Amino acid sequence: MSQQAETPTRDAEFPHRYNAAFADDIEARWQQYWETNHTFRQPNPGEAGFDSSRPKFYCLDMFPYPSGAGLHVGHPEGYTATDIVCRFKKLNGFNVLHPMGWDAFGLPAEQYAIQTGVHPAITTKKAIDNFRRQLKRFGFCYDWSREFGTIDEDYYKWTQWIFLQIYNSWFDEEAPSPSRLSKGRARPIAELIRSLESGAIRVGPSGEIVREGLSGFAAPLEGGMNLGRSWHQLTQLERRLFIDNQRLAYLGEQTVNWCPKLGTVLANDEVIDGRSERGGYPVLRKPLKQWMFRITAYADRLLEQLGRLDWPSSTRIQQSEWIGRSTGAQVDFDIDVHSLSPQALSELKSAKADMPLSLTVYTTRPDTIFGATFMVIAPEHPLIDHVLRHPGAGADSAALAAYVQKARNTSDVDRMENKEKTGVFSGVYAINPLTDEKIPVWVADYVLMGYGTGAIMAVPAHDERDFEFAKQFNLPIVDVLYPRTALAMSYFCEHATEEERVENTWQPLLADFLGVVTGEEQDFAKAIAIVRSRRENPASNTHIDPASLDAIGMKSRGAIRITWLEAFESMDIASFAQLKHIFDRRGFQAWRGEAGVAPGIAVNSSRQEKDDLPAVSLDGCATDDAITRIIDWMEAAGVGTAQTRFKLRDWTFSRQRYWGEPFPIVFDEEGNHFPVSEKALPVILPPLNDYQPEESDDPQPLLAKARQWANTTAFAAGVDPNVLAPETPVRRETNTMPGSAGSSWYCVRYCDPKNTERLVGVDAERYWMGGQDKRLTGNSRGESENTLLGGVDLYIGGNEHAVGHLLYSRFWHNVLFDLGFLSTPEPFQKLFHQGLITSYAYQRADKTIVPVDEVKEVAEGKYVEITNNQPVTPIVTKMSKRYKNVVNPDDVIAEYGADTFRLYEMYMGPLEASKPWNTKDIPGLFRFLQRAWRVLIDEQSGQPRLAAQENPSLEKLLQRTIHKVGQDFERLSFNTAIASLIQLVNEAMIAAGEKGAGAFTKDQSRRVCIVLSPLAPHVAEEAWSRLGLTQSEGCVSTQKWPTVDARMLVDDSIEMPVQVQGKVRARITVPTGAEPKAVEAIALADEGVQKAIAGKPVKKIIVVPGKMVNVVV
Length: 1113
What we know:
The protein has about 1100 residues and is of the alpha+beta class. Helices cover about 35% and strands about 20% of the residues.
């Protein structure tokens, strides 16, 4: 509902009054002063003006993506916070690095270009210019000499250089990490080749690394080659295949959402019900070869180091869950070859060579394998293609083909969100290795090929999804785990005598038995003996804690205490025979109607020795013990192995778009890939006038349209002639890097952005990225000095980046640390998330949105649409174009000034909390600045208002305010800091009175200006200047934070409550540090205490110093 602000004018009567025109004048002047005098330019070590005696503070914002719409008022919240902290640190003698730049490659700019027909290079530059103008208008203390954008050629040269380092590296699981926090590190591929050539490392039969009996990280090999030979026995093709499968950057096949009509790959959130969000066009799921980063190799380290970072716990939890470390077992289920058609069997044997025909699953609950009654495989599982070509006798081939096609064209997100369980029997059976039973193999979309192995063993009695699937398709549900109460019921069914099984006898007896088991925690044999000896006692008085009933789901609704007899009635068990039948058929969970997923005690879980496999029994074992026992058995029997797995998937790093960093990679005519020489960097993004996607069923990157650029020679592309002959025809990689590429390392480049020879200078990187954590020793350069965990001392940005940018940055940083290019393993030591600034939006009755500037308030809380006077409903939501509630900060600054804007955003509430923007509240902060200015400067003459002598009480309050504000700045508690300053100004106004006398002396005014300057720098600078201090001491931004006399922080007296017989009867004021006897005398002299005592003799007086007095009569 904002209106265009009128041009502000000065007050004629009070020409030096702080108003919008005055603010506009002084803000422009001081911003120009800072820029001209390089006030916030921070030299690097070795540069002129660098002071090595000062501590360092590196503070960084998540740099913005400059959109055409410019900043809205939600953007500057975090920027204002970092500006305050940086100004405060500078005042406290720190070398402060506070840079700003632009995350400028990516899809939004390209989409905008497609819509407008204006090239993204033009629109992006225009957007950057606007963002820079807006940020400078706030007076932020950025070192603009370090500015860059990810689209700058001299920046993305180093993005490409980092890609080459990752491409030319492998992960050695056996090497010690440079941080010594975990095992494993990145090493150059050249080192791997030398170790292979010397025989120190050999290639195992399945393509794994073998070294002195140890196997390292092995990527899956393509092509089915037998690599169980020494390096010198392998062909050149086999060597290339092996090396390429060890690289940390590799080509891998991924299933993507391809929209033929739009001619592009879509993210999962851009696909709704199989159609594109934009245009509603059909979307297909297609396999596509893309560049991948092997971030999974770092999963353990990323988890281990996460706990040492000063990050919000919610973000650490979110990232930890995204990485998703779990322990369990990999188990092989042999395929029943008789269920396959002869053609499918022949194909599988050919594809598997001499490997067994089996389905491999990963499970975190191998103890439940005796209850695996069927298997489910993903529609993309390799077995399916064989079955579709040659279905077996038990398969409905038409239904199977239709289901698989539909599932493969549904995004993973939709498949996981689909609550209705669907599936088709494949016609194939597998053999449960523990029960030796044939179990059907189903195809279902809730199993994803990208997670685990693409196959699961289904244990419906103890997994909710499997239970729902089994109920849907009438598949067996077999109990193999009971909570203690259910196990006790099963025991009773087995051991009850004939006399105890009759009607009206078994119920009270079982109720008593369960009461003893749960209430007295007796073992079952003792419990039943106790019950039999108490048979004359009424069973109806036996109660148990209802919480124990929750374990088996039998707690009656609304009951507070319930007897087991009442529970049996609610269970609707008509007879003992019915109860026993439930347990005899191992169907307790099926009878309950839900899976029992909690840990418990194993039942129905044993096998005899058979077919050269030893016997094993888990019966009676608690879950943890059962897991250990069954894994030991599996490994001994050769049907499974213990494994640690992660939910984290390798990072897909290719985009089929134009506006991104080109890859420094070329392909020869055989499809082999080769790196561009580092000397040839940057590989410049070619100009492309036609960047419109083309309709196609075959995914083709947009950059392929630059045919002359894409198709060239090795020499022209810059490939090292020792790698590829110069005249060799090559095709450049025409995918581009994602938008997250440039933002994954910008924190490093800011340390030394003008360096043309290196990614970052050694001294600059070590100084700025040194971090504050000194718990680590040793580093990748082999030196003994401390290696610190994180670099950036304070990083502020939104929590929406927890599992994207923040995780990817950590991966890049760890790799570069391993390779010796960085001195610390982590990029961000301290992370803080600012809260979301929401705003009011307005809805019509039909839920459509009315722009905020087309709404007016007609009464308190009542709003109407201006054009038709119809009522609208206010809602609080995020600020966005969709809700038509974006507030432009330019308008607010024009009306109130940048200092008021800064104060308002910081005063709205705690920085980390979400807060609604309300323009009505801004004038309150504007008036505070007017009062603060009026306390310091005369509005008519423009001269300082100074007190002739110091006011002691005001001096004490000033010292306390300095102390409190400093503490609040350190805690990022800016709203409370502002509240303290408001209190100080109010007290100063009272002290000054109405006659124009000053409240503060010059020295006090000096300190007030310094303390105010991080929050309202322009007002503080102007007041400082009018005090005559700028010319003699420099501007206020370069001063020292005032020191505080600790004695001023202690009260002269304190108030203490006095209790008589435990009730507060008075409050007394006593000198700070008074002796107990003196406190007693003051308490007893109080009129309220005398009245409460009423002449009774005092037995005892207890004085708790500084807290309270207790009188006992």
